[in-house]
Description:
- β3 (66-72), α3 (84-92) and β4 form a beta-alpha-beta unit.
- The chain has 6 helices and 12 strands.
- By secondary structure, the chain is α/β, with parallel strands linked by helices.
- The strands form 2 sheets. Strands 1, 2, 3, 4, 5 and 6 form a 6-stranded parallel beta sheet that branches. A 6-stranded antiparallel beta sheet has the order 10-9-12-7-8-11, with helices on both faces.
- It has helices at residues 6-12, 32-44, 84-92, 117-128, 145-159, 240-247, and strands at 22-27, 48-52, 66-72, 101-108, 132-133, 138-141, 170-180, 183-190, 200-204, 212-216, 225-231, 254-260.
- The longest helix has 15 residues, at 145-159.
Amino acid sequence: MIIQDRDSLAFQNKTFKKGHRILIAYATQTGNAKSIAQRIFALNQTHCDIVDLSALPVRLLEEYERVVFVVSTYGNGDPPSNVVSFYDALCQSEIDLNAVKYAVLALGDRQYLHFCGFGNNLSHQLIKHGAMPRVPLTEVNRNDAVIIEHWWSKLQETFGLQCEVSEDWTVATLMERVEDKDVVRFTLYIKSLEFSSAKTLIIKDSKDASKRMQVDIVSEDFDPFTSILFEEVHVKKHGSPLWRQLSSSQPGDKWHVQVCN
C-alpha cells in the first residue's frame, strides 16, 4: 500500500484495540475536508486516529466502534478522485459494521445538482452494512463555519470529542420567522441560555467574522426558546449588510451569537 501523507502513515503504525479509539477519516479534493479533520484530531489525538480514506482498507472499519467521516463531493455527486477505489470496495464488500457508530460531515456547494452527493451515498452504504449514525448526516454549503461548529458540538455530546473554543460565541438556530410590515420577529433556540437580564444580542457573519451587528432584545422569554424582536431601527449602521442576510433567513439556519447584559 502506498502511503501518501503523514496522517495515513501515523494511522498505519497504530496498534488496533477495538472500541478504545475513534477513527477520523477524511476524503478531500481541495484540502478543506482534511483541514477540518486535522483540527478535530489535534484536540483529541490521545484517543483518536486519523486517515485519508484513500489509504484505508475497508476491512479496517471493523476495528473501530466509533468513526467520524469528513468528506467532500467532487463533480456530479462523486467521491474525490483518490477515494473512488475505497468507495467501490465498500459498496462491493460484505463487511459487518453492526458494532460501528458513525457521524458524517458532508462538504459541498449548493450550486451543483447533487449537493453533498458523496456524503449522502457514503452514509447510505454504512447503514447498508449495519453501521448506526449517532449524529444526523450534516450537509455544509461552502464550508459554513456555523454548521461545522454545530456538528462538532454534537460530536462532543455523542463521542466525547473536545471542541474548539471560539471566543464567547454560541450557536443559535432559527426556529420561526414571522414578518409583519416593517417588523420581523425571530424565534431563536440558544442552548443553555442563562442570561435572564440580557438586553442585546450580537450576531456574527458565519463566513466573515469582521461583519457583526447588534440588536435589541425585546422579549423577556429565556426558557430556553428566546423570542427576539428585530426592527431595522435597532440595527447599528455598520451591520446593515448583515441585517439583509439575517432578514432573509429561514427556519433551520444557524448563526453565531453573543448575548449581552
